């Protein structure tokens, strides 16, 4: 049954309908893949194969009767563990959390269950989702399937690892500074952050989004109609639109597209990353787009201001913990946050102003262009055991210069693979468009995926 594991969502649903593959058969194939790979990959939390197989058997009977219960009936999906599911604890990636069962499904979990998807596992994240890493004091260490000695990125680390390892077609992460796009870039996946508020999220916070991480653009298109349905709990959500996500590839002829190759601060862009993004931009140009180079989007003061604001907010949370619980937090994070004790209120307020300044910069850069291309990640890879690409709590956000500003500006953005390094590691291209232009990003991604061709060398991990 392992040969069916690579079916995308659209083909899988057709196979269920045609009765050539059953949900039970597909779920068994996923479990077989997980059992073979997970001891080395470390992507999952709360993996429940027996419950999943029971749900798959029920879905199989519905499909045999021609009565599927929703648009994703019988399709396996993982959720980042920060996304609550009723009755299950939300450890938030840290040993400091008291494991109390959630009293309700978060919006994304609720919508997926309504449409029959099988949430067969959660995926790992670092302590409090505050790192771009698979390192956690609660979870096992998540590794990048393309090279198990390297980091999948984060904070949707397990989702990236699970997607690259082939644990089914759908994985859902969260993103407040790039936490869907960064690991998607490092693991070869398509990762999408919608316009802020398009996908309801709870609990909400400025810039926090929920988004799919999948091997193909089409797999994300299949889940977006489900997870974008409204939920009253998200007070930051935008008015619901029943968009047609089944988009065709964009025709870019005559389109003006911006290109940003330097974030303005943070880690220097690796030569291989720059070359891959330039090659991708040339593909757009060859199809008739006008490529316009744009200046940096971020200053050192902007990044330091964000850092100060986030440190201060997080330190207030740390102070609520008992001394015993605080001692269980990853030392890297505790060292980063505790520095906020020396930050005055004026500096914190100025940090918030820098977040607003980034929002204005994003709007300015997009003025006059349909979309913007850039790297997702500035570097090719870093060790699995590192908590961040710098391994330095004094410089924790040096890698988010291309991704984080779009969270501050609320724009839709995606990561899509645009090549590989000489060492065989995936490199991500970011595509961004203006607020509410989600379909533009998806059409452009669909077009680029067609020009690029499918990824055929997904990693195979020996048991």
TrEMBL record:
SUPFAM superfamilies: Amidase signature (AS) enzymes (SSF75304). Residues 27-442 form the Amidase domain. GO terms for molecular function: transferase activity. Keywords: Transferase. Gene3D superfamilies: Amidase signature (AS) domain. The keyword Transferase applies. Signal peptide: none annotated. This is Aspartyl-tRNA(Asn)/glutamyl-tRNA(Gln) amidotransferase subunit A.
């Amino acid at each position: 049954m392992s040969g069916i594991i690579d079916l995308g969502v659209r083909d899988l649903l057709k196979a269920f309908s045609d009765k050539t593959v059953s949900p039970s058969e597909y779920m068994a194939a996923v479990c077989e893949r997980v059992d073979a790979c997970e001891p080395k990959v470390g992507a999952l939390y709360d993996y429940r194969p027996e419950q999943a197989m029971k749900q798959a058997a029920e879905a199989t009977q519905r499909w045999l009767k021609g009565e599927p219960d929703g648009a994703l009936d019988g399709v396996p999906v993982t959720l980042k563990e920060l996304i609550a599911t009723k009755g299950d604890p939300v450890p938030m990636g840290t040993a400091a959390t008291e494991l109390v069962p959630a009293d309700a499904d978060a919006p994304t979990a609720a919508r997926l269950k309504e449409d029959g998807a099988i949430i067969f596992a959660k995926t790992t994240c670092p302590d409090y989702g505050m790192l771009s890493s698979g390192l956690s004091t609660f979870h096992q260490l998540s590794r990048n399937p393309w090279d198990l000695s390297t980091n999948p990125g984060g904070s949707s680390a397990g989702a990236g690892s699970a997607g690259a390892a082939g644990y089914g077609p759908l994985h859902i992460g969260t993103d407040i500074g790039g936490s869907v796009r960064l690991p998607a870039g490092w693991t070869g996946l398509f990762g999408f952050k919608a316009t802020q508020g398009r996908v309801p999220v709870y609990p909400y916070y400025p810039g926090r989004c929920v988004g799919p991480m999948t091997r193909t653009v089409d797999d994300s298109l299949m889940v977006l109609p489900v997870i974008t349905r409204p939920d009253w709990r998200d007070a930051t959500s935008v008015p619901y639109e029943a968009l047609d996500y089944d988009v065709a590839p964009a025709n870019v002829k005559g389109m003006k597209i911006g290109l940003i190759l330097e974030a303005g601060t943070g880690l220097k862009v690796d030569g291989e990353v720059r070359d891959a993004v330039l090659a991708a931009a040339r593909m757009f140009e060859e199809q008739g787009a006008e490529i316009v180079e744009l200046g940096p989007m971020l200053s050192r003061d902007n990044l330091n201001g964000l850092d100060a604001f986030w440190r201060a907010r997080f330190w207030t949370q740390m102070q609520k913990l008992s001394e015993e619980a605080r001692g269980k937090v990853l030392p890297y994070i505790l060292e980063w946050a505790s520095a906020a004790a020396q930050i005055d209120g004026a500096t914190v307020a100025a940090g918030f102003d820098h977040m607003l300044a980034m929002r204005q910069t994003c709007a300015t850069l997009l003025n006059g262009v349909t979309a913007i291309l850039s790297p997702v990640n500035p570097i090719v890879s870093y060790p699995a055991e590192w908590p961040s690409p710098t391994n330095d709590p004094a410089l924790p956000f040096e890698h988010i210069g291309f991704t984080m500003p779009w969270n501050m500006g609320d724009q839709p953005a995606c990561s899509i693979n645009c090549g590989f390094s000489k060492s065989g590691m995936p490199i991500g291209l970011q595509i961004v468009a203006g607020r509410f232009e989600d379909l533009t990003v998806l059409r452009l991604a669909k077009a680029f995926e067609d020009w690029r061709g499918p990824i055929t060398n997904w990693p195979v991990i020996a048991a």
